[in-house]
TrEMBL record, chain A:
Manganese or magnesium. Binds 1 divalent metal ion per monomer in the absence of substrate. May bind a second metal ion after substrate binding. CDD domains: RNase_HII_eukaryota_like. PANTHER family: RIBONUCLEASE H2 SUBUNIT A. This is Ribonuclease. A divalent metal cation binds at residues 34-35, 142. InterPro entries: RNase_H2_suA, RNase_HII/HIII, RNase_HII/HIII_dom, RNase_HII_hlx-loop-hlx_cap_dom, RNaseH-like_sf, RNaseH_sf. It comes from the Eukaryota.
UniProtKB/TrEMBL annotation, chain B:
It comes from Equus caballus (Horse). The chain holds residues 31 to 52 of 166 of the full protein. The gene is RNASEH2C. This is Ribonuclease H2 subunit C.
Amino acid sequence: MDLSELERDNTGRCRLNSPVPAVCRKQPCALGVDEAGRGPVLGPMVYAICYCPLSRLADLEALKVADSKTLSESERDRLFARMKEDGDFVGWALDVLSPNLISTSMLGRVKYNLNSLSHDTAAGLVQYALDQGVKVAQVFVDTVGMPETYQQRLQQRFPGIEVTVKAKADSLYPVVSAASICAKVARDQAVKNWKFVEKLQDSDTDYGSGYPNDPKTKAWLRRHVEPVFGFPQFVRFSWRTAQSILEKEAEDVVWDDSVAEDQEGVGRITAYFDEGLRSRTRLPHRYFQERGLAPAATL
Amino acid sequence: LLPCEVPVNQPAPVGRFFTPAI
Amino acid sequence: ARQHVFLLPEYLKDASKKMKSGLMFIKLVNPCSGEGAIYLFNICLQQLFEIKVFKEKHHSWFINQSVQSGGLLHFATPMDPLFLLLHYLIKAGKEGKFQPLDQVVVDDKFPNCILLLKLPELEKLLRHVTEERVNPEIDKKKYYKFSKEKTLKWLEKKVNQTVAALKTNNVNVGARVQSTAFFSGDQDSSGKEEDYIRYAHGLISDYISKELSDDLSKY
């Protein structure tokens, strides 16, 4: 899988896709959506779709894309290679969301939470397939958040398509399991080849599974927390695990909008200056006031 | 010049973590 | 250690190289408020600079491989030392008699004021603001007394120079704007002469006492 775009800049998102099999533009298709890396505090989250004609679902099943959770990493890699070989009837697309994109979305001034980001990414990939001319008839999605709202939103967005949002969809529908394999292969590769722009000290990549409750992961986070800069961008700053370490180990940085000082409070304080004092302490001339300049009383 | 107050005066690995963008 | 970020005229760079103590930060009186203020004294060129600081909330610096809180930006601007000497001459002038300079420029709050006595061409400077006497018997020493009308004439020149500078630098002297962000390049530069003089008087008044500022305004 060619993730070179991500390796060049791993602070945004990158989309990958297979060629669209000609048959998928002619016959009604089933399309599966799944993600990999939703839980970890490290590395990207990957959304994937996989689609094939309804008439070839049995062949897809024959590829043994059983429930991807039961497969080892090497089995997934092999299966992914098989799917690429049988590319004449199977198509896929991925959207790799970097930890930086996840963090900045969740921590932005206007909150864009993980569920919304997930839903929009999934819908974006389905739209991509439609834009490529794939005749999508059915969509199967693994639940993210409340299945009903998710089902409703997707059904509204794609009225002509039969949408099914279900828990454990990756063990019920082969197209979802295939999507899950694509997502996991991409995430594993992205993590394995992660380029630390921060030039990690002693390139210590012993971070375990990346899941918050993994002691190895927590130990790695504590080793790499930096008081002023926090963590390398490989880390999802918006994760509770990361935030609690920052609160303990890092400096409190104050932004101008983070301290919504009560304006009237300021007025109140000057009310205490008796008129005389204020007029006696001559303010700097407006030339300086308008430029934020004052005499330096001390260094 | 940063648009935030980092309330310390100390060494920091600026070169490793910070790339000024024009 | 605390670090400071300064904007200085380029030529000062080698001043600090030539002599280790080429540049000194000293505390002297602020002639407007009477409080203390930091100045930069260039020993080599015998030149005085005032220090202004740009201060805005929630700023800090990355300086090479370090972080510095506060984010203050200091400016060093050449300043006419006569504004400082004037502060002492006016104080001494109240006694109404002629005195030698080294008895006038003394200040136990800001002892470094004696550095002002080392400035070149001091006598030429003083002629703008004082009457002087030479006592023939005693060692040709010069005695000075503050002269208000000479000073007002000198300040008037300063105001006119400032008006010219305000015009060439397109400084907006008209109605007060909320922030420099609203300064439009093409503000009505036809700003009335009156506004320029009032603005220039206000600027100069940041360097003289309130009393002298009022006299100057009447003058």
